[in-house]
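Table S5 (text form). Sequence records supplied for joint modeling of the two-component complex.
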Amino acid sequence: MGVDKKVIKLVPYNDALKRLASVFCNEAQKHEIVSVKDAFGRILAEDIFTNINVPENNISLVDGFALKHEDTSSASLERPVRLKVVGKLYPWSSPTDICISSGQACYVTCGAPIPEGANTVVKIENVISYDGEIGLKHKVKPWENICLAGEDIRAGTLIFRRGEFLRPQDIGVLAGLGIKKVKVFRKPRVAIISTGDEIFERSRRDPEIIANNYALIISGLISKIGGEPIISDIAPDDITEIKRKISDSLNKADIMVTIGGCSLGEKDFVPDAVNSLGKPGVILHGVMIKPGKVSGFGMINGKPIVMLPGLFASTLAGFYLIFVPTMCFYMGLSVDDLLPKLKAKIGQDKQADERPYHVFLPVSLRSSNEGLIAEPVMDGPASLSRFMKANGFILLPPRKGLKKEEFVTVTLFSNDELFRIMSA
Amino acid sequence: MGVDKKVIKLVPYNDALKRLASVFCNEAQKHEIVSVKDAFGRILAEDIFTNINVPENNISLVDGFALKHEDTSSASLERPVRLKVVGKLYPWSSPTDICISSGQACYVTCGAPIPEGANTVVKIENVISYDGEIGLKHKVKPWENICLAGEDIRAGTLIFRRGEFLRPQDIGVLAGLGIKKVKVFRKPRVAIISTGDEIFERSRRDPEIIANNYALIISGLISKIGGEPIISDIAPDDITEIKRKISDSLNKADIMVTIGGCSLGEKDFVPDAVNSLGKPGVILHGVMIKPGKVSGFGMINGKPIVMLPGLFASTLAGFYLIFVPTMCFYMGLSVDDLLPKLKAKIGQDKQADERPYHVFLPVSLRSSNEGLIAEPVMDGPASLSRFMKANGFILLPPRKGLKKEEFVTVTLFSNDELFRIMSA
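The corresponding structure-token record, covering 848 residues in total, follows.
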């Protein structure tokens, strides 16, 4: 029984990234205009400047009385100053609706404009109230309880930058500035194609079982970084079937990702399928990363396809080190823009790997009284259970070891990890 | 013109929390059963144990040949040991499909079970291949490249706890264990009712404008912590209209939250509306928190209603200090379960407040080379622009000051903040 040995030439990781980036450098970036209400969690594709002052007028920060502070200079406990209340202003009033003269005051609700002539506001609880008049027992300083026009945000200010992720409060700010629509990056549709006789057979035998659970994980992670995942049917280890699944996805997706079938075994048909479907086909296959070295990348008729290995530790390493940069470049972002990072102290020594590989080191984060501690959670074969304990990874450059207590940058698997970081 | 002064009695924050908790202590918790595929981002309402080993059999971690390690004891560069290849096993094969005797080997793909009789696996790249035979130039150790049954997860293990938030990889683990459905907390539907003539008038004048932008922020934050927000129409400062909006929401929502109209001005009708709609009405109005002291809480016909002040700094403080605990208690969780927290060093001294108030101190987080630094971003009147810079808050107990470099616990506004934490 003959078994052919295949060989791939491994490319240093930094070179692999350059090769990926160069594929997309001339691509038009994909944008769309959405209503501000629908922009939660989207990434801005434009800088945003405001053209109004916030607040538009000087406004009162309290419910109280607007008046001239000079009128209170003689106020005392024994001889309160009395002022005539000449009107009321509400937040939707105009400051020119009322003009205050000496000896007068105007009731202002919180957020109301300061009427012309007034230069301070006294809280309602600090006045004595008479019929149509108020009394003040204390001298008042100018501009008390007033927020000046433009004090919050001045017209012309750059308030959001291209590439920023929009949080709930950002949406409120945009809406508050009267901005109705924003330009955001289009969410790439990503087709996920699982391959492998094993999962194909399992799902055929019991259609209710979720045989391609790695696809489910990759799908969830893609949503978390702003893509729209589409889970495709499972392809068996058959080149015709793999080609058919990839062809189907070409029409539905912007980016494709395969799981499995890109190693060096006799049934690893994915690279051949990619090469036979269109030019240029496989651009990269084999990267000096550990694990995940058989990860690859290709282009079929202008659409990117990322090939991930089928063993989970390698699938995940390929996802973060090859797929995520691909999605960043596709969107016109920088390689690290989509993933949250935190600094932590490493919990134990980690010996340098001898080979010139970048090392994808999963770590579990623990919140101690003195900040975050990162504990390496695996350094061996694939294991779902150990990955459950991991919250992110450290990417070690070739031949870099770590000394206990050294500060490291941890890239979180997603921002959901915050719910799992344990307290000491 | 007469202006009535209203008075509320402020309750210490810890007492307010106890009062909230006691309202829900006899409530049945609300669960639902969902398909594992749909359980992303949901919170588990049950402990989950596995009843299978992962992997189920001893499996190969590589593409290679399973054999008896004893057969290789005499292998050398000059005289390779030759073994007869008697079959192939795939991941979906059974370990009893083939039985290895001395002098035999079996081709195994990555993930395939180890055939009976074999006790080690040699990688395909480390054998010489002949017609129907393989040659080995080196002695092989037992149990190389094999993952033992149950090595990843042993049957009977507690793998997830009640209250845990399900991340993408957790879904994959559940699916991989053959678990098809899980019990999760039902997402509470939360109606958000904005009140105020100002925003009512603005939205009437220009229906295209998003006048109730605070409602939009609160709505986004509610989604982030696992609720289903429903933004209601704006009510003007009119008790009949406010009652009508709250009544409408009673039918659609599990929890209600109002914004504005709960202060002490002449147009603050929300507490009266709550009291007139059902028993017991207002349970709490006025809390020793700064800002946000006029926040309140009530029950109308068994449904909780949280009253938030209308100035943004206070709205947000009331949201995190009163609304979020209400939602936790409603769901049967602990007060802090829904919000992510991180430790950080405070960037500057902060003087203690003299009054016995809990202080809600918004901070901006910055990732330095030595971990996170928290900088207080406001200590004065409301300002949307300053809140844009904040990523979370510190809750200071009464009369507690902070010394620069002291470690503090920062509660993030949501896990989205991770995308905004700046690098030094």
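Note: Chain A has eight helices and 25 strands.
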